[in-house]
């Protein structure tokens, strides 16, 4: 209880911890921006895509549920400074498993609404090409 209160007080003075985590990690920021671009690729934001995005934020990146709205707001405010090519460029030097994880997360969001739009397929295909990842690596279960 006392720790939760201290975290809330620290959050007031230091800003949201989830936003700080994203702002301090350019690769994480780029990945979240790419996931957000996938949400927007078909021209609409579905509830199921946002549920998938929130789940990925929480499970894969350790962003607290209470921080996700602030993270989304941060991405909306500062994401315009980074285009898709710049975001992908940050991933080219990362190990192949991290690049595969980005591709799997993008595919998860694209499939979340049970409709795979051509624009989503194009974005995923282009991303896979830029990351030098095979489509097989996206559908193959993690080992």
TrEMBL record:
Record-linked InterPro entries: DjlA_N, TerB-like
Pfam families: TerB
Transmembrane segments: none
Domain Co-chaperone DjlA N-terminal: 33-138
UniProt feature coiled coil, ranges: none
Source organism, top-level taxon: Bacteria
Name assigned to this protein: TerB family tellurite resistance protein
Lineage: Bacteria, Pseudomonadati, Pseudomonadota, Alphaproteobacteria, Hyphomicrobiales
């Amino acid at each position: 209880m006392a720790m939760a209160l201290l975290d809330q007080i620290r959050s007031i003075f230091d800003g949201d911890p989830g936003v700080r985590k994203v702002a301090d990690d350019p690769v994480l920021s780029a990945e979240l921006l790419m996931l957000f671009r996938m949400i927007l690729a078909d021209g609409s934001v579905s509830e199921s895509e946002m549920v998938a995005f929130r789940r990925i934020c929480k499970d894969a990146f350790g962003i607290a549920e209470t921080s996700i709205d602030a993270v989304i707001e941060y991405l909306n405010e500062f994401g315009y400074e980074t285009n898709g090519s710049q975001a992908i460029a940050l991933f080219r030097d990362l190990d192949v498993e991290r690049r595969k994880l980005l591709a799997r997360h993008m595919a998860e969001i694209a499939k979340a609404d049970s409709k795979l739009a051509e624009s989503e397929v194009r974005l995923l295909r282009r991303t896979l090409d830029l990351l030098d990842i095979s489509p097989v690596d996206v559908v193959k279960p993690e080992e």
